[in-house]
């Protein structure tokens, strides 16, 4: 599947990680990670840090799947508001999920500190805007739910939002715990770090076409017949992981994004904050290190790549129009636009860990708008499971959670 189209900003901004190394022989290893995006990279970091021999394989050029199309915002908020998630999964599980995401932002930051590389990681605040009166009522309830849970949150009245951002929103929820980064740079930095240290093998342009369960683990077969014998398999292939799952666990959606020409810094709003809104689907925006503005949204059900791609020009125009309505004084000119495919689950939570009756096959599926923080959690949980260490998050985000 084509996971994105158009001109994803990160691949244009950065030199391509020019790595071509298809697997051409039979090999053995302890753990195979399928997927070289930010999820696979974070899993590789965790396993390498634990001293576990591992291999990363990807059918594409490294990091050019969904990671290339990510707008790379790190927030503790989940697509499903806390008050709604409590209704879906229970209060303890919902609060725990939100707190896991909050901790995950710091954990992602520490990954890059540990390898001595900075993929433009920047701590920024978040404003969740009330789009209308019903949105304001939602925010009042959500504020109470988060406050009761001990989560960092402030409720801002209309005059404060106007003073901070120059936006006429009815109200907003604010916190100063979020972050943003260059997702593509982050994934390639991690993988290159462990390649240089000779702690990792990386095979690009290598499609796993089939697999067989063995007494000691798995035998993976590539499209050209090469075999990888291993004890564990980690599926970090994001929205293409369905072929490894016996049943569908997510719905595919199309999302759209635009990025502006660089603008004068005087036009950038307070503290480079992440901004999103209560509407569904919501509009969201962030800035970049060179004072560009990324705007995303206009999500819709995914049908096929052709239909998604044909919508790109129209959707880009809508996003620009919506942004200019919100910030009429900012001279926004679209420089690039792209469309991507992502997934959502019924409860907004990821799927992490082993699927029932698939021993030693671990899934790191950080679905939804909070994919990177979920990916960090998945990497840690899977590292613990592989080394035999109990992790309560495996139950929280596991495939059996619907039975609770």
TrEMBL record:
It comes from Paenimyroides ummariense. It holds the Pfam family DAO. Residues 31-383 form the FAD dependent oxidoreductase domain. GO terms for cellular component: cytoplasm. It comes from the Bacteria. InterPro entries: FAD-dep_OxRdtase, FAD/NAD-bd_sf. This is Glycine/D-amino acid oxidase.
């Amino acid at each position: 599947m084509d996971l994105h189209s158009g001109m994803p900003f990160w691949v244009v901004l950065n030199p391509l990680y020019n790595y071509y190394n298809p697997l051409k022989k039979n090999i053995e290893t302890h753990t195979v990670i399928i997927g070289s995006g930010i999820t696979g990279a974070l899993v590789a970091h965790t396993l390498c840090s634990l001293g576990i021999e591992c291999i990363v394989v990807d059918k594409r050029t490294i990091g050019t799947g969904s990671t290339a199309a990510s707008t790379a915002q790190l927030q503790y908020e989940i697509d499903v508001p806390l008050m709604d998630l409590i209704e879906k999964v229970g209060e303890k599980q919902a609060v725990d999920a939100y707190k896991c995401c909050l901790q995950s932002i710091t954990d992602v930051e520490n990954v890059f500190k540990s390898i001595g590389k900075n993929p433009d990681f920047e701590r920024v605040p978040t404003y969740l805007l009330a789009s209308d009166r019903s949105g304001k009522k939602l925010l009042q309830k959500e504020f109470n739910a988060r406050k009761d849970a001990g989560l960092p949150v402030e409720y801002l009245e209309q005059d404060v939002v106007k003073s901070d951002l120059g936006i006429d929103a009815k109200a907003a929820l604010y916190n100063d715990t979020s972050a943003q980064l260059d997702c593509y740079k982050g994934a390639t930095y991690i993988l290159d770090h462990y390649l240089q240290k000779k702690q990792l093998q990386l095979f690009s342009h290598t499609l796993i076409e089939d697999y067989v369960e063995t007494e000691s683990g798995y035998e993976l077969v590539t499209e050209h017949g090469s075999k990888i014998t291993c004890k564990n398999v980690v599926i970090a292939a994001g929205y293409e992981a369905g072929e490894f799952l016996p049943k569908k666990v997510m719905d595919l959606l199309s999302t759209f994004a635009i990025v502006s020409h660089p603008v004068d810094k005087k036009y950038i709003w307070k503290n480079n904050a992440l901004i999103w809104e209560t509407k569904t689907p919501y509009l969201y925006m962030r800035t970049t290190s060179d004072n560009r503005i990324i705007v995303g949204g206009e999500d819709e059900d995914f049908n096929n790549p052709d239909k998604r791609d044909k919508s790109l020009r129209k959707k880009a125009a809508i996003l620009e129009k919506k942004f200019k309505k919100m910030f009429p004084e900012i001279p926004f000119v679209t420089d690039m636009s792209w469309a991507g495919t992502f997934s959502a689950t019924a409860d907004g939570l990821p799927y992490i860990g082993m699927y029932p009756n698939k021993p030693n096959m671990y899934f790191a599926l950080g679905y939804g708008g909070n994919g990177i923080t979920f990916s960090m959690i998945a990497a840690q949980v899977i590292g613990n499971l592989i080394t035999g260490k109990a992790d309560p998050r495996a139950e929280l985000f596991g495939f059996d959670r619907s039975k609770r």
